[in-house]
Specification:
Blueprint lengths: L1 E5 L4 E5 L5 H7 L17 E6 L2 E3 L9 H5 L2 E3 L3 E3 L3 E4 L13 E12 L4 E7 L11 E5 L7 E4 L9 E7 L5 H8 L6 E8 L12 E6 L3 H14 L6 E7 L8 H6 L7 E7 L10 E2 L2 H11 L7 E6 L1 H14 L7 E5 L2
Parallel strand pairs: 1-7, 14-15, 14-18, 15-16, 16-17, 18-19
Antiparallel strand pairs: 1-2, 3-5, 3-7, 4-6, 8-9, 8-13, 9-12, 10-11, 10-13
Helix pairs in contact: 6-7
């Protein structure tokens, strides 16, 4: 166990030998800025002033030679091997409403949704607490490193965690889930994490835009919206895939809670392969925002988005820069 002091912040926390600097700080209720939690985005950079840390991924793409020269590291990929003094700027908004913990779960179900999307159901022994739209880290047998996946269900007392996971070419984690996972397998969860969770206190129409595996957290938000029963329950859910085979059947979307009551669902194909596709075409964010702009001011809504970084970045530009939507009304999770 190492003790870490944050310079100029009057904050200290313990980092266990098998934990990372970032997750140990978040478990202690410290607002350590971060986004992806798996070494890809670089949001959790910090500087070591005294002491020593071990880099779990020295070749992480978000660390530059200049970072290394200045003894900067990624908190999500660093383990303290001695007491340390570090330099970073705590952000109160990064403090999580439910402090993350680590625990064992049992694989209870695997349900194919498309050729490369599967719904994974895991069962723990304790009640499940998280904000719709958050994610967790999964430790998979025989797979090096943790994998970040967003929940598709909502908090419950039954210990149930569900995820919609997309198979990635060359991805060891998704390959295990698609090829080797068996009901009864033992896994471990670390969570919850993430800042793109549903803001239940905000009474504005909600727009959810998802690409690929991003449909999971958007379904969680739709379910959370229904459970919260706020005054304005209008929800629009847009899902983008490349072609027909990437689309989840509307009946399954409805069963998963994404097309019920006040929720309007629409699928958008960017590259339909035949003339049989009768839905919208193009990029999902462009279709969604054009449709919404035609029906009222974009700034009158609250936005939640999950998908690949290019989709999120393009949608942010369209909403905030071109559409005049206040940045505080846009919540997103990039799927690296």
């Amino acid at each position: 166990m190492a003790r870490i002091h944050i310079q100029d912040a009057e904050s200290d926390f313990d980092c266990a030998a098998d934990d990372t600097v970032l997750r140990a700080a978040l478990r202690a209720g410290i607002g350590f800025p971060y986004e992806c939690n798996v070494g890809s985005c670089g949001s959790c950079r910090f500087q070591v002033i005294e002491g020593e840390v071990e880099d779990l991924w020295p070749e992480a793409p978000s660390l530059s030679p200049r970072d290394l020269k200045k003894n900067r590291h990624l908190a999500c990929q660093s383990r303290a091997v001695a007491d340390c003094v570090i330099k970073m700027r705590p952000d109160p908004s990064a403090v999580l409403p439910h402090l993350p913990t680590r625990f064992a779960v049992t694989l209870e179900g695997l349900r194919p949704l498309t050729h490369d999307l599967v719904e994974v159901s895991l069962r723990g022994t304790e009640p499940v607490q998280f904000v719709p739209g958050q994610y967790a880290l999964l430790a998979l047998p025989g797979v090096t490193g943790l994998r970040a996946f967003s929940m598709s269900n909502i908090a419950n007392d039954d210990g149930l965690w569900t995820f919609i996971i997309k198979r990635l070419p060359g991805g060891a984690g998704s390959a295990w889930l698609f090829e080797q996972a068996k009901v009864g397998s033992q896994l471990h969860i670390d969570g919850p994490y993430g800042h793109a969770g549903y803001r239940a206190a905000i009474d504005r129409p909600v727009v959810c835009i998802a690409g690929g595996g991003g449909i999971g957290p958007m379904l969680s938000i739709v379910r959370g919206r229904a459970a919260a029963a706020t005054g304005n329950d209008a929800v629009s859910l847009y899902y983008g895939g490349r072609a027909e085979r990437d689309m989840i059947e509307p009946a399954i979307i409805a069963e998963l809670g994404g097309q019920d009551g006040g929720c309007r669902y629409e699928a958008v194909a960017s590259e339909p392969t035949s003339g049989s596709w009768i839905g919208a075409t193009g990029f999902v964010h462009e279709h969604a925002l054009a449709q919404l702009a035609a029906s009222g001011a974009l700034a009158d809504r609250e936005y939640y988005m999950a998908g690949p970084p290019p989709m999120i970045d393009a949608a942010l530009r369209a909403l905030v820069i071109d559409g005049g939507v206040p940045v505080g009304q846009v919540h997103y999770d990039r799927f690296y």
